């Protein structure tokens, strides 16, 4: 005790440095070493002090005397008292500001007193009773609770201000002290004891006085109690610093209040069971970091394991609670009831000061004040939730005892909602109109940007009304039991009032009848006047307005994005975006500085239906005709952040400069594949050949062109010549080069005819990937897209539309003619023809739509950019017919049809018959040409018209969904109705999407085989010249099924048996009986192939470099990404290949836990624990979603960022 006495005298005092940084770091280790050495002795001393009542009383007496001597002799603890008036009551507080005066983080005597005080309930004593016993033995006045808690309060405020960054000039010595203050080595005798000391003070003081003292020490009394608080009108920098201090300290104050009120899980403070204490300890341990079951046992029970069964039950309870939890917010936890010694602690949350703070913070958030922060509102709502729990406990006690003299002890709702009114005046409507907590919560729910706390506010509002109703019901029951005589008198009084009301109602009705009679007589006498003024005109006008509104609603449901009925957006509203790097706002137009999105461009095989197919030489590869196997593609992903191009370049240069100094570190990013795309502000062939092909295309749809002599290509609002600035043009060209380089694995050439095709392919392929991702998650087509997906697609489509107009116009015209020649029935010898049935129709649609404007403009500019005109609609119909033929040919080959609907209407039967005629024509034509082997008794092909119609519509949906995404982003038009891919509502979805695409005709009218253009087209597509290609080509069924990961067994033991059944190692270095090679098998989750994963084994040549088996397989199977499951290590291997040509190959990768969990929901990398493992479907689907959405490079990059070691693996060896 003498050591602690000498230790208490202001050791390691500090004062905040303001003007300059501290020059010499003071010595601080000795005091903390002393704390660490004395911890066990202090604990034994506290236990000894509470071993006997006499010893306990003498210990309290000695501690109070020492604290009084310290306060008298030490200047640091010479307290200055002051007072403040709150609600006409004067409260005392200690006038001290930690940020301006000297302070010490060491307060061992106050902490010792708090620990001994907590044992007072063991002897059934109170502090008043104890002082009466020892008062005669000491010569000191009765100590004030304010002085007892002052040293601990100062230490807590010092730590809070240091963490908020207000003591930076005091150097690392203070940071180290704050770190060890809350570190596990010292926190039990420092931080925990300080919280315990404040709890002691709160139990001894008036709650209003306690909170006022805390607020003045934090220097935020006016800030949290005055709703009209304003910053002083001075310099902006000073105001910003003061605002930063006030908001930070208010959050720290509320957090401290949560600690004081909630930290009660001790048998000396609350009535708590051992199992509940254990459950809370488990939760806290798991919040620190994920832990295995064995680690939990060691951390919680380092010496013995006698509570292991309770631990397992607690873990199982938390796991089941986590699985069944559906709410997106965390309610405050229910706290155990306090002991009698600390009972006054509850009233911290129903005192007048706390209610004032609640009202002040909520009103500021409602008014969107700059003084309000999310941290403040979340903490105060947590405290309000705790207050409601205490109110519930108080109400439950009243329910158990319905005596008339029973009163409520906890009055938070009485002060915050009822405003000292009686609960018998209960009315929810009144609460929601008057200025009280319920009204404020209703307003807070409707505040903008309330997502972080909206669910919490709704729960508090509902809970408050529930408690108010319950209290009202209890009060009614009490009033009924209070006296029956009073109730009888009230009934008689109510009966008299009822009789008076009835008499008054009769009199009122009589007067109204007389007035009606007089008005009728007046109208009859002036009948001619009323006929001239048309009394019913108002009603008819209202009816007409209602009908007009109904027509507008019907029109809104039928939004059209292309064709003659599309409404061109002529609004002049400007789009303003904020740069995420410099935070400056910029208006997006042709003259402004370029704003860009950051994109990652990569070659992809995610959608491939033929992974064996390879492109041997990209230099000679003709990319204009994308095969329907989708063996390769170019995909882009984006973070969605918009920034200035100049800011982005500065950021890249800075990061490269910093990372160039770290030679030993493996970079977690790849600037070679990261390019920027501009948020576009746009909502040598002979003329004879061009006109001939264009006229043939126009003859296909004579009825459409009868309405307009020339193709109606919509232009932008201003007909004057418009041009991009040089900066924007450079961005467009750079992004197109990126798509070319990483799509074709060759160096870019600006004169290459495939430059525009590369960005068209990037556009079409990215849309197809997005559509399949939405289909996998069963999400609507438009309104479920994230902001970054919407921005990426919108800007990618517009940039693809612009590039063909501004660059490589001659090659674009040639590509357009080649595409049209493939689709047209009139063949030409100028081009090599392709089999249209072997091509992907959505790529054909995108290519044709983006290249068509060049045919009609000798000198195209921005005004030539297509914008959903008739040409686009006709191209869509042409490709729709071709895709229908493609689908029915596949169905004839595979004999796969959907069942027909149960009931059909006569109109539907007529549509079905037309489609059936089209199907029969195809079947007979293919049989005659020998394209399909058909026998007379082939019953599988003899389907009903309903089955053919249903099958065709279902197979067309993916193509139509992709087309809707393309034209929606091209024309800045989105449908009001979300389009789902639900087979049960396929008819409704099909009609909605056809209407959105501007196709008024039914599918049966478009595919009417009696129409000569349709018949000519089909016959030209299915000629004997395409017979060989059709038979050799890979037959693809429609609609495309999603490329999914292989199905893994549910039990990990079965997976191990499957992987070790065959030895796939082909290296001569491993012998036949080498078990290591068998156990090193790895599974490709994309195709299911077993590979050897041993390092330096089974290597292959890739780009003239020896690489591992997995790297080589990732190139052939996934293009640039690979997802493998290492069974022997129970982990997933992710690989990403970065290359732009044959001489540049880099491989990055990472390891992830396998999607197999034990009974405790934990992974087991390396199979160290040996617990039984089961497949987790959610984790497996998450991994598949990352692969499908091309997020594997992002996952690898994030793993590198979290990596702390300098040693990295040579990933190309895997």
UniProtKB/TrEMBL annotation:
<feature type="region of interest" description="Disordered">
    <location>
        <begin position="478"/>
        <end position="499"/>
    </location>
</feature>
<keyword id="KW-0436">Ligase</keyword>
<keyword id="KW-0479">Metal-binding</keyword>
<dbReference type="GO" id="GO:0005737">
    <property type="term" value="C:cytoplasm"/>
</dbReference>
<protein>
    <recommendedName>
        <fullName>E3 ubiquitin-protein ligase</fullName>
        <ecNumber>2.3.2.27</ecNumber>
    </recommendedName>
</protein>
<dbReference type="InterPro" id="IPR039164">
    <property type="entry name" value="UBR1-like"/>
</dbReference>
<dbReference type="GO" id="GO:0071596">
    <property type="term" value="P:ubiquitin-dependent protein catabolic process via the N-end rule pathway"/>
</dbReference>
<dbReference type="Pfam" id="PF18995">
    <property type="entry name" value="PRT6_C"/>
</dbReference>
<dbReference type="GO" id="GO:0000151">
    <property type="term" value="C:ubiquitin ligase complex"/>
</dbReference>
<keyword id="KW-0808">Transferase</keyword>
<feature type="domain" description="E3 ubiquitin-protein ligase UBR-like C-terminal">
    <location>
        <begin position="749"/>
        <end position="1189"/>
    </location>
</feature>
<keyword id="KW-0833">Ubl conjugation pathway</keyword>
<feature type="compositionally biased region" description="Basic and acidic residues">
    <location>
        <begin position="487"/>
        <end position="499"/>
    </location>
</feature>
<dbReference type="GO" id="GO:0061630">
    <property type="term" value="F:ubiquitin protein ligase activity"/>
</dbReference>
<keyword id="KW-0862">Zinc</keyword>
<comment type="function">
    <text>Ubiquitin ligase protein which is a component of the N-end rule pathway. Recognizes and binds to proteins bearing specific N-terminal residues that are destabilizing according to the N-end rule, leading to their ubiquitination and subsequent degradation.</text>
</comment>
<comment type="pathway">
    <text>Protein modification; protein ubiquitination.</text>
</comment>
<dbReference type="GO" id="GO:0016567">
    <property type="term" value="P:protein ubiquitination"/>
</dbReference>
<dbReference type="InterPro" id="IPR044046">
    <property type="entry name" value="E3_ligase_UBR-like_C"/>
</dbReference>
<comment type="similarity">
    <text>Belongs to the E3 ubiquitin-protein ligase UBR1-like family.</text>
</comment>
<dbReference type="GO" id="GO:0008270">
    <property type="term" value="F:zinc ion binding"/>
</dbReference>
<keyword id="KW-0863">Zinc-finger</keyword>
<dbReference type="GO" id="GO:0016874">
    <property type="term" value="F:ligase activity"/>
</dbReference>
